[in-house]
Amino acid sequence: HKEREQPPRFAQPGTFEFEYASRWKALDEMEKQQREQVDRNIREAKEKLEAEMEAARHEHQLMLMRQDLMRRQEELRRLEELRNQELQKRKQIQLRHEEEHRRREEEMLRQREQEELRRQQESFKPNFMDAREQEMRMGDMGPRGALN
Q1: DSSP state letters, 45-96
Q2: pLDDT digits 0-9 by tens, 85-137
Q3: What are the boundaries of the region Disordered (predicted)?
Q4: How far apart are alpha carbons 109 and 63 in whole angstroms?
Q5: Which helix H or strand E contains 10, and what residues bound it?
């Protein structure tokens, strides 16, 4: 109890107590500074690691997006190729139909021309029998136009 009743006393400079108290104080101060430095280093290392993680996460997202884009571009290229093949097929079918239509029309025209030529020939035949045909018809008939 007596110690509490008296005011605090400080060691006098140059004494044994003062020297070791100063050394303890310096050691405590050095420990405090080093702990603060370690805390700063750890905090900086954590921040750096978090930044690296964020950059890696961002890079990974970019890689996934690039892969998705490449996949979509490949799918689009494939679809365009299929579309072009389909268009080529349709074009060939159209050309074939047009060619068939042209042939049919040419055939119909040729048949009409042949039919017209045949009609013209038939229309001239009865009126203008050649001499041989007249002889044959006359030869088949006997005197006074009777058939033999």
Answers
A1: HHHHHHHHHHHHHHHHHHHHHHHHHHHHHHHHHHHHHHHHHHHHHHHHHHHH
A2: 999 999 999 999 999 999 999 999 999 999 999 988 888 765 555 566 666 66
A3: 89-148
A4: 68
A5: none
In angstroms and rounded to an integer, the radius of gyration of the C-alpha atoms of the chain is: 60
CB 100 within 8 A of CB 93: no
Total-model pTM = 0.46
Phi, psi of 9 (to 5 degrees): -120, 145
Contact criterion met (CB below 8 Å) for 18 and 11:
yes
DSSP 128: S
